[in-house]
Amino acid sequence: MNDINAITTLVYNRPRVDAEGAALRTALGTGAAARIIHARLLGTATPPRLFLALRGGPTIPRETVNQTHVFTWWIYDDPAQGYWRINEALRLLAQAYAARRLSLPQAAPISSVTLDNAGPESEDEALGLLFRSASLIVYA
Amino acid sequence: MSGFENILRAFEKLEQDIEEAIADELTIQCDDVTEQLQATKAHGDVTGATRASYYALTATADDDGGDISGPARAAANEKNPGHASSETIPSPGPDAIKVVITSGTDYQNKLEEENAGKKAVVGPEGTRASPELFEAAQRGIRRVFRA
Fold first, then answer.
1. Between the CA atoms of A32, A34, A38 and A39, what dihedral angle is there, to the nearest 10 degrees?
2. How many Å apart are CA A119 and CA A76, to the nearest integer?
3. How far is A45 from chain B (nearest CA, A)?
4. Which of A70, A130, A137, A138 should we substitute to test contact with B (largest number of B Cβ atoms within 10 Å)?
5. What is the pLDDT of residues B91-118, one digit of tens each?
6. Could you tell me if residue B107 is left (phi over 0), alpha (psi between -120 and 50 degrees) or otherwise beta?
7. Interface test with B, best of A38, A41, A55 (most B CBs within 10 A)
8. Residue numbers in A near B110 (CB within 8 A)
9. Which helix (H) or strand (E) holds A115?
10. Any CB–CB contact under 8 A between B138 and chain A?
11. Which of A10, A38, A87, A100 is the most buried (most CB within 10 A)?
């Protein structure tokens, strides 16, 4: 099995650090890196809006050496903003992954990444924020 | 009956046998998925309703929307009256079989989505189980052709 930590880091860093994520970071504004977080940190401190949170999902065996890794990006904004900025962030996020294939330095390049169906416009009552989610499927 | 009609009848019988075999194998696999759902550690449980109402079910064209979600909603209502979901799941169309992975409570959407899906169960388990369910359908088809 490929290193899940390494794959998670690649997925997380694409919008947060890689050049392909620059347009998204510009759209997020000041302190963009702090607005892209791991979802487990949501309980400790909520970043300034607009922000993105990544949660890892199941790893599913496909063949003897490959797996399907599922991640979900959750994009949040204040209710006063509506979904306009969320939708634009979603577009730029998809663009960041499409621009260049992810790769693992110690193994074969990750074969495919698709930013799958975006969820509907939704409200998180616990956080008091609007959100949309988008699943990211990584074959490795 | 002509030879051509006999051939048509044979294909219709084959189609029916395949559909039944797929539904049988999926039903068996759904029992395993239901166990996984109800054993989740993603969240706690005050009344036991949430866990008890997780179900994976196989639905065919003979099932109506109320029947499909019935077991899940009944389990929710038994343990937490007033919090059973009022939604029914559409029946599959003719010649269709579907697997439904569901919860019978009216607050499952919150568990699936709040705090970036921190307590999600149905979504992740559905994703995890999808290859096993696909293999179960394949077993059904193989069973017919090996009979």
1. -90
2. 12
3. 12
4. A70
5. 888 888 999 999 999 999 999 999 999 9
6. alpha
7. A55
8. 125-126
9. strand A112-118
10. no
11. A10
Residue type, A49: R
Residue type, B101: I
Does any CB of chain B come closer than 8 Å to the CB of residue A97?
no
Question: SS3 for A22?
Answer: helix
Phi and psi at A59, nearest 5°, equal -110, 125
Q: Is B132 on the interface with A (CB under 8 A)?
A: no
Residue B54 φ then ψ, to 5°: -75, 130
pTM for this entry: 0.87
Q: Does B124 touch chain A (CB under 8 A)?
A: yes
Q: Chains A, B: CB contacts under 8 A, how many?
A: 46
Q: What tens digit of pLDDT does each residue of A86-118 get?
A: 999 999 999 999 998 888 765 666 767 777 778
Name the residue among A66, A60, A72 with its Cα closest to residue A112.
A66
Length of chain B, in residues: 147
